[in-house]
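If your schedule permits, I should be very grateful for your opinion on a structural question. I have a record of one protein: its chain in single-letter code and its fold written as discrete structure tokens. Kindly check, if you would, that the fold set down in the tokens agrees with what the sequence suggests. I remain grateful for any guidance, and I place the record below:

***
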Amino acid sequence: MKKLTLYKLLVFNLLMCFGAIGQSEKIVCVGAHPDDPETGMGGTLAKYIAEGHDVYIIYLTTGEAGIANLSHKKAATIRKKEAECANEVLGTKSIFLGQIDGQTIYTPKWENKLNEILRKINPDIVYTHWPVDSHRDHQIASLLTYQNWLKMDKHFDMYYFEVCTDYQTMGFKPTDYVDITAYQEIKKAAVDCHTSQKPEEIYHDPHCNHFGMMKKRGEEMGVSAAEAFIRLY
């Protein structure tokens, strides 16, 4: 609890020092599994919170298939707690849509279920997975979000984030960058909550290497660390 408190204080102090920038907005990130939003754009989410915005993470699944040798029920219980830990670190609100890890589907029913949540939140900006991705669950999360962007008459700005670039996310050519230099530690703390997913491998594994991704995007932006996005126009 001490660790979480320190990061909450850091976010609070940043907010007090810099203040909310402009009018408070509602931000949504739709990810396939617990840990996807945190690894892909945890620094950006933390920055939104520090600026005084309301931020929601919608998880398509609860990561049921993500822990070897455990039943879906036991794995989901563990991964939901890990996601709640990460949301506490970031200051975000979590929502679980209810699909099953590895068995995600696109149907009008699930499109409508996500639509109900989005209409209730009424977001200004929504982020989701880049659709050209090797993981089917990422593709489904992306498609459900995109169809709701159309269904809601493009009411919100929509951006795609990247995970495990060139291993899962393919052909990603950023249109926008966010400087997360001041939020690297908060992002890392949120990712570290997902202990069942071996966070050090997420950060330094040659396939994922999110630490390397942050540094590469930072170099492209001219800062120490950044996260990159593609805006849907």
Notes: The beta strands are 26-31, 54-61, 93-99, 125-129, 157-161, 176-179, 226-232. The chain has a mean pLDDT of 92.
